[in-house]
Specification:
Blueprint: E1 3-4, E2 10-12, E3 19-24, E4 29-30, E5 32-34, E6 37-38, E7 65-67, E8 73-78, E9 84-86, E10 89-90, E11 92-93
Antiparallel strand pairs: 1-4, 2-3, 3-8, 5-6, 5-9, 7-8, 7-11, 9-10
Length: about 100
């Protein structure tokens, strides 16, 4: 299920306790998932039978930013057992930018 994302949107996982906030989005429709299941808006109910996928169970860490090559950036606001992905492609933790040297 592809959804259009915009900065500030909040979502939660249907299969674990993960909660996320969109920091940066390209404006395209994205199949954003957590634990292998499509993410839900905070007021939506999880579908019956939703289960954590073993292939997407690496977990998500609170305070970490997750990104892909298509300029999508997600902030994890509550940790959980599911890993974040776009379709079947896992998002990666965004690393810190190196500071310039102060010679």
């Amino acid at each position: 299920m592809a959804i259009e994302l915009k900065p500030g949107d909040r979502f939660r996982s249907a299969v674990c306790s993960t909660e996320i906030v969109v920091v940066k989005a390209s404006g395209d429709a994205v199949d954003l998932r957590c634990g292998g299941a499509a993410v839900l808006r905070p007021d939506e109910e999880a579908p019956d039978g939703a289960e954590l996928s073993a292939a997407h169970s690496a977990g998500s860490l609170i305070g970490k930013r997750y990104t892909d090559e298509a300029e999508l950036e997600i902030l994890c606001s509550k940790a959980g057992d599911g890993s974040l992905s776009v379709g079947d492609t896992d998002l990666v933790v965004k690393g810190a930018k190196p500071l310039p040297s102060s010679d």
